[in-house]
Specification:
Elements lengths: L7 H29 L8 H50 L9 H22 L11 H9 L1 H4 L3 H5 L5 H7 L5 H18 L5 H26 L4 H25 L1 H8 L6 H28 L12 H15 L18
Length: 341
């Protein structure tokens, strides 16, 4: 999400279920107490407030941990941007003596293979997605509407950067990005053996490739290590327990008004409104806090808050192709409904 303000439509969609839940559950508890006469439902608010304080701390801890995963993923891709540029700089400089006219294609091949690597890594990180396991109706609609912006077609994304025979070979590997990096290493070794690349220049370029390999491993670590389920599930459970108990404690807060309302004909809406408003507000706040952590725990998915790998890959592509002197460059990635993928 790149908009400075979170869209009102998204806020309403995000909080519709908690708001409805808080309203219905608060109304049920009120009717049982004020109309049916179940006075035992009234619970002192102090213990529930204590639970709410503990839940807020726990949810805050979970959200901080989730954000750390997102921010680490973003820093990793920032490193990929820097190292990709450094690799292109090195290829241009160290293979710069082109008096024989046979190194231009080789430089382009090496740089284009680097572009294939970043896109292969992006596609691998999105190959499996929690959004495709049991997507909600809203998620299904967003995935369909934004399909063109997600750019997840494997052959279409890698074909511009690889020869057809190499594309067919690397596509058959489970870890295409690793195979592409191995090919880069082999090409540099051949150049050194043919004395087209000095040994110190080979070492410098191999250092960059080693750093890129480390960054790939960091991405795979985050992708392959789910957020600890005890934090995620107990956070969700504690929030549900709190919002379930909340209306019982609010009965105690509004006891005098509710006692008056029981002796009037029908429901006293003037007295019930403050109770329901508090129930809805607190249910929405705590449920939203808990959901925010869920939205950030997997940074390499297709969520609106995840690392915009499409945009990052396109930025690298524009920079590296410009270094090759190409005049026709692709346009920068555009957002869809304020979301940059």
């Amino acid at each position: 999400m790149i908009s400075r303000r979170f869209p009102v439509r998204s806020i309403l969609s995000f909080g519709a279920s908690p708001i409805l839940l808080g309203l219905v559950w608060g109304l049920v508890v009120y009717v049982l107490y004020a109309e049916v006469g179940w006075e035992f439902l009234r619970i002192p608010f102090l213990p529930i407030a204590t639970v709410g304080t503990a839940v807020a701390f726990y949810v805050g801890f979970k959200n901080n941990a989730s954000y750390e995963r997102f921010w680490e993923g973003r820093k990793i891709w920032g490193g990929i941007v820097n190292e990709s540029r450094a690799f292109a700089y090195g290829v241009q400089a160290y293979l710069g003596d082109d008096s024989a006219g046979n190194l231009g294609d080789l430089r382009k091949q090496l740089i284009y293979r680097q572009l294939a690597w970043i896109n292969a890594l992006r596609l691998q990180l999105r190959r499996t997605s929690r959004f495709h396991d049991k997507p909600s109706r809203t998620t299904k609609r967003r995935l369909q509407e934004h399909a063109q912006h997600m750019r997840n077609d494997w052959d279409l994304e890698l074909a511009p950067f690889l020869l057809p025979e190499e594309l067919s070979i690397v596509s058959g590997h489970a870890n295409t990005a690793t195979h592409l990096m191995a090919t880069q290493t082999a090409v540099l070794a051949d150049l050194a053996r043919q004395q087209q690349l000095e040994i110190f220049h080979q070492v410098a370029l191999m250092t960059i490739l080693r750093e890129l390999t480390a960054l790939q491993g960091m991405c795979e670590r985050i992708k392959g290590t789910p957020f600890p389920r005890q934090y995620a599930e107990f956070s969700r459970l504690f929030v549900r327990v709190f919002v379930t108990l909340l209306p019982f404690g609010l009965l105690d807060v509004f006891a005098d008004q509710l006692h008056t309302a029981r002796h009037t004909d029908g429901i006293n809406w003037v007295m019930i409104v403050p109770m329901l408003a508090c129930s809805v507000l607190l249910t929405w706040v705590f449920s939203s806090m808990e959901s925010i952590g869920d939205a950030s725990e997997d940074p390499f998915e297709r969520s609106m808050n995840d690392v915009p790998m499409n945009a990052i890959c396109r930025t690298i592509e524009i920079d590296l192709r410009a270094l090759l002197g190409e005049a026709e460059l692709p346009a920068g990635e555009t957002s869809k409904d304020g979301i940059l993928y």
